[in-house]
Amino acid sequence: QVQLVESGGGLVQAGASLRLSCTASGRTFSWYRMGWFRQAPGKERQFVAAINWGRNEIYYGISVEGRFTISRDDSRNTVYLQMNNLKPEDTAVYYCGSDSNPLVGAPATFAYWGQGTQVTVSS
To answer: What is the C-alpha separation between 23 and 62, in angstroms, rounded?
Structure first.
């Protein structure tokens, strides 16, 4: 079993920055990819970014590329999402997901999820 806990969300104005954290515990040896997704009310869960533990391969969704940066600290079992130049359309609950070999961008292929952290960007 893998446990994921997100933190770092909040209410900010447009143009501000936030850093989300996702700390993992449990069967860390089986991890292959960590991903960030977001879900706004009435919308499907949307891919934001993903990173592989071992090979440092990184992927971004089109709507956040150039503004968001995903990184990880293996010693802390933590993945970060640095979000710069936030826009009102970034408002959503942000979720951290993990699985041994999920498809990038496909939330249905991630078996483990955190509880989510709310990000609200005011205009």
So the answer is: 25
